[in-house]
Amino acid sequence: MSVLIETNIGDIVIDLKIKECPNTAKNFLKLCKIKYYNFCIFYNVQKDYLIECGDPTNTGKNGESIYGILYGNEARYFQDEIKKNINNHSSLGTVAMANKGKDLNDSRFYITTKENLDQLNEKHTVFGQVVEGLDVLEKINSTFVDDDNRPLQNIRILHTIILDDPFSDPNGLEVPDKSPSFKKDFNIDNRFEIDDDLDKENRGKSKEEIQEATEEKDARSRSELLEMIGVLPSADIRPPDHVLFVCKLNPTTESEDLEIVFSQCGTIKSCEVVRDKVTGDSLCYAFVEYSSKEECERAYLKMENILIDERRIHVDFCQSVAKVNNNSLSKFSYSFKKKKKKKKKKKKLTFQFIY
User: Fold this and answer.
1) Of the residues 87, 266, 341, 349, which has the maximum number of CB atoms within 10 A of its CB?
2) Distance, CA of 259 to CA of 88 (rounded, Å)
3) At what angle do helices 255-262 and 293-303 cross, to 10 degrees?
4) Residue ranges of the domains in the chain?
5) Over 50: is that where the pLDDT of 53 sits?
6) 3-45 pLDDT, tens digit each
7) Under CATH, which number does the domain 243-352 receive?
């Protein structure tokens, strides 16, 4: 009873313990069958310990069991199947549920990258063993990671192929005719995807050099995009050092609201939430211009990830180059010379700093 996991750096084959932990094995098999794990990344890589995957949001904080998908939120988690004789972590390549507490199993799982991890025994349901692809495990184990143990380059599950499934499909299980297409949301994840060219480019570089190259390439890509859509006269133009790009805004957040919050860090010259030209709807990002570079840097450090109108915002310098050409913003926002709108009832602005 096996599953082949295709990743962007190689294949891993897992044998499942269907007799010892049938509910856990069935959960894993049926999630694979509905392509639930496709494009999940390994978001937690702790060298010579374990690698974790199985959360489609790629944060490690979410995930859902097949039972939750079929029967609703009350069935999101299922019980442990921990047995002393099988739930040990003596072998490298042990596959177990990454539950965060007793009987809190969903879709998240981990694979050990070291032998004899006795501290994990009797805490997690061991439901499989890697039988092929230990070299792939070692590649993941050796990858460069950031301070949160997330790889600097995305290591991603591409496909899961069930080699043998002894369980019948439960009623209501919707199996897709084909694998879903991969569509990356750069607003959520702007990290490199591993490919052959990138591997060659980064070969022999240190973690810091790879991270610096990642940031430079990301900034360049976004500048080229802004040039293509007419926001920038040239992708090579130098970004102003006193303008911030703010994204992931709540659609209800107004320019005036944002200015109130950001004015705590300095004198605001302009603050504009960018809007769709046709509908007038917020595009959920904005530009905040300060009177000095120092004020801008202070805001960059203080405002990242704060809560505004129940949304955690992201603050960056890179995309603020769009502010170089104010006229181009009219492609996305209302003209500033339009008649004044009727005053709307002022909503209560809420924001919270995270320390």
Assistant:
1) 87
2) 56
3) 100
4) 2-168, 243-352
5) yes
6) 999 999 999 999 999 999 999 999 999 999 999 999 999 999 9
7) 3.30.70.330
The Cα 191–Cα 155 span in angstroms is 10
Burial profile 244-267: b = 16 or more Cβ within 10 angstroms, e = fewer: bbbeebbeebbbebbbebbeebbe
Residue 349 has pLDDT above 90, yes or no: no
Angle at CA of residue 155, ends 150 and 161, nearest 5°:
135
Q: Say if CB 82 and CB 124 are below 8 A apart.
A: yes
351 bridge partner residues: 308
Pairing of strands 243-247, 44-46: unpaired
Identify residue 288 by its one-letter amino acid code.
V
- Please name the residue that has the structure tokens 């380059």: 153
Whole-number Å distance between alpha carbons of 352 and 355: 10
Average pLDDT value for residue range 157-176: 90
Quick one: which of 296, 271, 3, 13 has its CA closest to 135? 13
pLDDT at 77 (0 to 100): 95
**What pTM did the predictor assign?**
0.57
Kindly report the number of other CB atoms within 10 A of residue 50's CB atom.
Answer: 22
Joined tokens for residue 312: 């955690």
DSSP state, 195? -
Indicate the SS3 state at residue 59. coil
- Does domain 2-168 fall under CATH 2.40.100.10? My reply is yes
Q: Under 8 Å CB-to-CB from 76, ≥6 apart: which residues? A: 64, 65, 67, 68, 106
List, as one string, the DSSP characters of 229-266.
Answer: TTS-S-TTSPPPTTEEEEES--TT--HHHHHHHHGGGS
> Over the chain, what is the mean pLDDT?
81
